[in-house]
């Protein structure tokens, strides 16, 4: 326990030493140099180009610069999806060192992003000892690499002691790295996506990693174990499988027919957070495979779609709370958890907040997992798909309302012209639509929220002193349809789609199941959503009452209020919420008390990333990565803003 406390004992107020600044992921900075009164004076202080190649014309998904930099001990550290780790002078953006992990950018990745690195200080090492301070980078091609924080050189002892095991792919490790594709319950096939997109969690002398798994291609893709490695040696210390394998575990019984033995995914691809004083690690788990048909994994599927609290030192489950039972909507817990202390009736309660694609915001007791604000099970529609049995109920918050709408009807159809509105009304009226958690169907189902949320991976920022949580949300539904695979004519289906002007359907053969899935966000003929604006918003939740404090449009899309968004907010003691995340290629500042937009700056590309702030040389900087790829635009820039230098 002493080692756990020492790791996070010192945190300079001006630093941002972890993805969410503190190990609990609150994303709150105590800096006050930038205020509501002077935020309009922010200007670009420096720009660093990562050198990430422009691959926008590639046949598979292009890379997205989604990193949130960290700043610790007077140095900034960033990573690109192509495996470049760089150390920068935080006052000027000048590069101090650069390490290339040698990622093959043409291999093809499901989500080609790397959102950050982690820092670890060895409490046993004397100052100046090589690798006494380490940067841990988990690369998109699933390697865990330890670098000396001062020089960028690999730490040779990390991975060197990993013993060879049967079936290990391309060797177990060594030379500063561990191969994360090796040693899994269900190993990934070479052609399957098995990636790491998020920074590791560091707690005590452990570095903990999850994974990103292609979970909509087969009923049995790679397994989604979370693993803790010794931060010095890279030796595996414990493994937690979100699909329980112990038949005596009560959660095992929620996977009917022994389906836990072969089901994959349910992985943790988002950020994990830690409470070192309580020796707790909090995991946001995702859906089991495949996303849209659960007939081969009937039951509630416990530990999947959950926030799971583990004993950090052992990997044992302390408690779990499932946010979606038997997920058939791709409602991963994409958002990182966030730790906060809330007060009810004069009693201070250590809590953890979890938002999700279902648009619910759960506030749970950090030590027990019991809801602080009530949650009730409500009846939801049954499935009509042969072989499927949807959960009869789902958990709904009763005090905090949904952060985005849970239902649209054909009467809600929207369009910028009467013709577009009529076309959208026809699209919506043709779909099965019985409210929240309407299951996928052979007819086609209106899914609200859509597969990007609700709350996506951007997560929350928390101003604990004022008891407010800030959450960006999407308000665009999707449609999902299943087809019987036998006799399905792919060319004919796409020809029919094209004749209707619909070329953006995503088709997936869910191998091992009887079905093919297709889905799309519901956009009208003008390219704008078929449901009313705003299409995305920033929501503030009062953590004293559980109510909504304010709700404002976030960005614009085609000149219409609100934008689909991917990326998170931060909040400062200066009373400001900073966020990029929108399609309109800008970063914004909002008044944390009122939601009023105070400042906006254009960026060279869309900021599909979460910003951060720190102090260097007596100045407060706000930094964001600009280069989200796809509709966000290609780019490779880390952009720093500050008040004019005196």
Structure commentary:
- The protein is mainly β and 646 residues long.
- Helix content is 4%, strand content 32%.
- It has 3 helices and 43 strands.
- The strands form 12 sheets. The chain has a 5-stranded mixed β-sheet with strand order 1-37-38-39-40, with no helix packed on it. Strands 7-8-9-11-10 form a 5-stranded antiparallel β-sheet, with no helix packed on it. Strands 2-43-42-41 form a 4-stranded antiparallel β-sheet, with no helix packed on it.
- Strand 16 (226-230) and strand 17 form a beta hairpin.
- It is globular and about 65 Å long.
- The two termini are 46 Å apart.
Topology:
Blueprint: H1 2-7, E1 28-29, E2 43-49, E3 70-72, E4 75-79, E5 84-88, E6 95-100, E7 118-121, E8 133-138, E9 143-148, E10 173-174, E11 177-179, E12 194-195, E13 201-203, E14 206-209, E15 212-213, E16 226-230, E17 236-240, E18 273-275, E19 280-284, E20 306-311, E21 317-322, E22 338-344, E23 347-355, E24 361-365, E25 375-379, E26 393-397, H2 418-429, E27 445-447, E28 461-463, E29 468-474, E30 478-484, H3 490-499, E31 506-509, E32 515-521, E33 536-542, E34 548-553, E35 556-557, E36 560-561, E37 569-572, E38 576-579, E39 586-591, E40 597-602, E41 612-616, E42 619-626, E43 637-642
Parallel strand pairs: 1-37
Antiparallel strand pairs: 2-43, 3-4, 4-5, 5-6, 7-8, 8-9, 9-11, 10-11, 12-15, 13-14, 14-16, 16-17, 18-19, 19-20, 20-21, 22-23, 23-24, 25-26, 27-30, 28-29, 29-33, 30-32, 31-32, 33-34, 35-36, 37-38, 38-39, 39-40, 41-42, 42-43
């Amino acid at each position: 326990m002493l080692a756990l406390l020492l790791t996070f004992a010192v945190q300079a107020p001006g630093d941002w030493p972890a993805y969410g600044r503190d190990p609990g992921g609150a994303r709150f900075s105590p800096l006050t140099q930038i205020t509501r009164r002077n935020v309009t004076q922010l200007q670009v202080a420096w720009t660093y180009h990562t050198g990430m190649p422009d691959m926008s014309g590639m046949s598979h998904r292009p890379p997205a610069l989604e990193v949130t930099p960290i700043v610790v001990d007077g140095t900034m550290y960033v990573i690109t999806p192509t495996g470049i780790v760089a150390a920068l002078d935080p006052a000027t953006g000048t590069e101090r060192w650069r390490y290339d992990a040698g990622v093959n950018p043409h291999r093809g990745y499901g989500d080609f992003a790397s959102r950050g690195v982690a820092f670890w200080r060895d409490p046993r090492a004397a100052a100046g000892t090589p690798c006494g301070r380490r940067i841990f980078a988990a690369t998109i091609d699933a390697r865990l690499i330890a670098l000396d924080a001062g020089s960028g050189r690999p730490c040779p002892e990390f991975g060197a002691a990993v013993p060879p095991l049967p079936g290990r792919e391309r060797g177990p490790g060594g030379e500063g790295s561990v191969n994360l594709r090796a040693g899994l319950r269900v190993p990934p096939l070479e052609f399957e996506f098995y990636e790491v997109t998020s920074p590791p969690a560091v707690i005590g002398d452990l570095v903990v990693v999850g994974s990103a798994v292609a979970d909509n291609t087969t009923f049995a893709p790679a397994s989604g174990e979370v693993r803790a490695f010794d931060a010095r040696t890279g030796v595996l210390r414990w493994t937690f499988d979100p699909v329980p394998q112990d038949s005596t575990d009560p959660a095992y019984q929620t996977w009917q027919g022994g389906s836990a033995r072969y089901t994959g995914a349910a992985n943790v691809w988002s950020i994990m957070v830690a409470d070192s004083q309580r020796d707790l690690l909090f995991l946001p788990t995702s859906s089991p495979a495949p996303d849209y048909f659960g007939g081969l994994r009937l039951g509630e599927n416990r530990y999947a779609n959950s926030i799971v609290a583990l004993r950090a030192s052992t990997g044992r489950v302390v408690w779990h709370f499932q946010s979606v039972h038997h997920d058939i909507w791709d409602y991963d817990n994409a958002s990182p958890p966030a730790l906060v202390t809330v007060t009810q009736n004069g009693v201070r309660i250590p809590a953890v907040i979890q938002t999700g694609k279902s648009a619910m915001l759960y506030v749970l007791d950090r030590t027990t997992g019991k809801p602080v604000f009530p949650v009730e099970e409500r009846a939801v529609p049954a499935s009509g798909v042969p072989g499927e049995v949807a959960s009869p109920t789902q958990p709904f918050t009763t005090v905090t309302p949904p952060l985005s709408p849970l239902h649209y009807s054909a009467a809600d159809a929207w369009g910028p012209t009467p013709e577009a509105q009529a076309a959208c009304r026809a699209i919506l009226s043709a779909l099965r639509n019985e409210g929240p958690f309407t299951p996928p169907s052979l007819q086609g189902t209106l899914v609200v929220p859509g597969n990007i949320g609700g709350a996506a991976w951007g997560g929350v920022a928390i101003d604990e002193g004022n008891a407010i949580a800030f959450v960006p949300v999407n308000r665009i539904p999707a449609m999902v349809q299943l087809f019987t695979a036998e006799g399905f004519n792919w060319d004919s289906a796409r020809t029919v789609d094209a004749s209707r002007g619909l070329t953006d359907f995503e088709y997936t053969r869910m191998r091992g199941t009887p079905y093919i899935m297709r889905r799309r966000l519901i956009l009208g003929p003008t390219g704008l959503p078929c449901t009313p604006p705003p299409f995305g918003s920033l929501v503030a939740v009062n953590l004293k009452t559980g109510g909504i404090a304010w709700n404002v449009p976030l960005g614009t899309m085609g000149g219409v209020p609100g934008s689909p968004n991917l990326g998170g907010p931060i909040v400062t003691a200066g009373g400001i919420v900073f966020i990029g995340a929108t399609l309109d290629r800008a970063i914004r500042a909002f008044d944390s008390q009122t939601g009023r937009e105070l400042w906006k700056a254009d960026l060279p590309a869309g900021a599909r990333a979460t910003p951060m702030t720190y102090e260097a040389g007596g100045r407060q900087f706000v930094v964001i990565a600009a280069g989200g790829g796809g509709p966000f635009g290609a780019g490779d820039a880390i952009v720093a803003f500050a008040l004019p230098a005196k």
